[in-house]
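Contributing: when you submit paired examples, paste them exactly as shown. First protein:
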Amino acid sequence: MSESFGDMCESKKDELLEAFLGSDLVAEAGECSESSEELRQARDKAGLEKFSAELTKNPRVLEGAAFEFLGSMILGGVAVVDKAAELMMDKNPAGYVNAIFKAADRCTVPYVKFALVRAVFRRYPGRYRPYILALGRELVTGEWNEHTLETTSWLLQKFGAELLPDLVTFMHCQGHAQERVQILKEAVQRLGAAALPVVSAAVSSDQKELADAGEIALKQIGQI
C-alpha cells in the first residue's frame, strides 16, 4: 500500500527534527559550554540546509505536520525556528501560514512568538500587522535582552511614528546607553522633527552618554 500524504508528512517531520535535535547533541551536553554551543550552531546550519533542500524539492513536504514540527523545535530550544518558518513562508506561504501562526500563539517565549509572527507578517502584512506591533511593543518596553536592539530597530523601520510612545519609554529605561543612542539616531534619521518626544526623553536621561546624544539630536532637528 502506498504511503498516505499524512504519513509522508509525519515521516519527513521526524527525519527533519532529527537533523535539528539529534542524539549526539544531547551526548555532548556534558562537555564545556563552548563546544556544545559550537555543535548546536553547526547542527542548526546543517538542519536549515537540509530543510531548505526538502522544501525546494516539495514545498508541501510538511503541510500535514508543520505545527507539530515547529512545536517540537520550540520545545527543543532550536534557535533557528524562526528561520525555518521563514523558509516555509518563502516556499509555500498559503500551506504553512496557519500552522506558523498557531505555533506562535501557543509559544510562551516572547521573542520566539514575535519572530514566528514576523515570518508570516512579511508575506501577509495587512493580516498580521496588529499582532506583530503588539508583540514588538512588549519587547521594546520590557526587560532588556539580547534581542531588544534588533527588535526595536526593525519595528522603527516598519512602523515609524506609531512607535513614538514606546520609544519614549525606551529612552527612559536604565542601562545600555550606547544601544539607546543608536535607536535615538535611527529615530531622528527616519522621523526627523517628529522624533522630538524621543529626543526630549533622551535629553532628560540621567545617563550622560544618552543625554549628550539627545542634545546633539535637538540641534539636528532644529529645536535649538
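Second protein:
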Amino acid sequence: MKVLFAICAVAAALLVFFYWSRRFAASPVVNREVQTEISGHGFTLEVAETPESRARGLSERPDLDQDRGMLFLFDRAGVYPFWMKDTLIPLDIIWLQDGEIKDIVTLQAPTSTLFTPIHMPLALANAALELNAGEAEKLGLKVGQRLELPR
C-alpha cells in the first residue's frame, strides 16, 4: 500500500511539474522597460525583477539590438549565477553591487543542449546587466567603475 501511495505521489508531482513547465514556456513574460545612459550611449533595458522574468532572461531570442539589454534586479546582495540555456546570442554579463561593477564576463551561446555551464560572479551583487557580447569592452566598462542604472 505504501509503495502504491509513493508511486501515485511521484506521478502527481511529475504531472504538476510538466503542467507548470509547459505553462511557463508558453506564457510570454512582459518586462517593463527603462531608458538609461551607459558611457554616453543610450540604452533601453528590459527589467527582469520577478523570478519568472529572471529565469527566462534573454533565452530563445534570435537577436538583441545594439542599444538594448536586460537589467536583473535582486532583493539583496548575493551570488547570482547565470547560465545560457536556450540562449541564442552571445552576451556580456556585468554584475553590480549598488551600482559598482563587480565582475564582467562574455558568454557565448551554447553549442550543446547536453551541457550548459553555469557562470558565477566573483563577488556579491544585487543587480546584473546583460548586453550584446563585446559591448562592455566597446563602452570601456571596468571592474570598480560605477554605473547609475535605474531601479
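If you have annotations for the second protein, write them as plain sentences, like these:
The chain has two domains: 1-29, 31-138.
Residues 9 and 46 are 39 Å apart (CA to CA).
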